[in-house]
Amino acid sequence: MDNKRFFLATLLSVFLLFAFEYFTPKKEETHNTTQQVKQEQTPLSTQKVESSSNQEVAETGPDIRVPINANQVKGSLNLRGALLDDLVLKNYRETIKKDSPLVRVLSGPKSKDANYVQTGWVNADHDTTKLPDINSVWKTDQKELTPEQPVTMTWDNGQGVKFEKTISIDKNYMFKFEQKVVNSSDKPVSVFFFGRVSRGFTPKELNGYLVHDGPIGIVDQRLEQYSYETIRKDSKAPSDISWSKNTTGGWAGITDKYWLTAIVPQQDKNVSVVYGFTPDADQSENINTGGVEKGTYQVGFTSRQPMVAAPGETVSTFGHVFSGAKVVELLNQYEKQYHIPDFWKAVDFGWFAFLTYPIFIVLDWLNNFWGNFGLALLTFTLIVKAVFYPLASKQFHSMGKMKALQPKMKEIRETYKDDQQLMNQQMMRLYKEQGVNPASGCLPILLQIPIFWCLYKDLYVTIEMRHAPFFGWIHDLSAPDPTNILNLFGLIPFDPSTISPFLHVGIWPLIFGFTMFLQQKLNPAVLDPVQKKMFQFMPFIFTVVLATQPAGLVIYYSWNNTLTALQQLVIQKRMEAKAKKASFKKAKG
Length: 589
Hints:
elongated, Beta-galactosidase, Chain A, domain 5, 2 domains, six-stranded antiparallel β-sheet, alpha+beta, 13 helices
């Protein structure tokens, strides 16, 4: 088998790698056990009934709000229900346009895209203490929440028990909730505390084979990810629980591609984490949601041991809420600061995280050094080339020898064209006599395939590369090249990609196609007519395929092909010079 066949196998393996992620299902097992459901069903079910029934009452009264003004976010706290339900990110916009709306991560229960955080208490067995609910109006001691000024909200049940929530925020996206029960009555108060993220709509789900969006968490030191569809199907009345488990600490919430809202309980507390879905009573508009059942997804924690406040006693607990951009460096900082296990896994680095994550760390460091992710990609390519240079040198030497054997190989093919087995035997004999291993040129490419895939994953899932500019017309490395040759790069007022995404071919994909064509010219000629035709179409096919991919990936491939071609050309020139020198010595001798 000649080197071209191995090269073809390598190209096909790239497609197989993409197909592997596409066709491999996400791990979406249901871990409920009868014992767990019995332990957790009562408090969780009570919470859900309260939030569902009282939400309708809440719609009759106006919201009362306390503004939030921090370094990275702005929004407001809702004193009706003590909800964190209004938050936008100051430094992220929906598109690269300067007048584009800021990204909103939290919205109130009444909004179309409801997404909010609720914390509170649930009565333990046989306790009838009146508790605050989603319709309760709280009092506050401050007019604004800032990093320098926490807000304390209070609610009195009129029975001698006062409930307090002190909320603070850091300079980024982490809120701290400290909850107190002040018992001035003559009876003990026994309650469970809870915290949950509620989402009252089903987003348009992303390609699950590239990035996970939906319920997520680290439970019992293990990453748990579930799709919206799985949560809906597995949530059965009356408890509306899809998945539940007892754990100590951890975190859980709902993630989007770039944004996360998660509950982080005290890491030394025994809690129950629950994923669930409560369907709306009115499903009349399902036809407008693509047939998807309407309802509210809930992910959160409930304490496993009740908080007991004796008469005259105050009991308290605290937790954190993260709501913002999944910046890897910041997630790592929070992981160390608050001992949150594997918080960086909120970013979906995929099955090959052991490789994808370190590659991102290198790219991020290079980006901080250069101040440009495009330059970081180019520099990373040089590093990869340096690491694989010894293997690449052997590859090109082998290819050079194969190219020199082309006349003899052609002669063997013509002589034994009617006897395939004998032809192969003669080819192997020729390789052995000349000390050529046709498989040696394939190894460096095969070793780089995982790097190519991990780089693609990094470009697709990390917010650090979102809207990251390069030079010229590339204003977002995570998006395809915006130019298109089919409308003469904008001269014709028509966008062919509206017909099909494969009708979008920009300048950088064309550069990539040219570099691939250049590499083919430097490789040994293909003798088989069928293979020759296939390889002639390869640059065109890959140009069309990569035209829809992130521009950063196309720039990486183009630069990689250019360096490979230059490296191959230099090695071939050295081999030719060495061969001429040896021939001259032989003739002279």
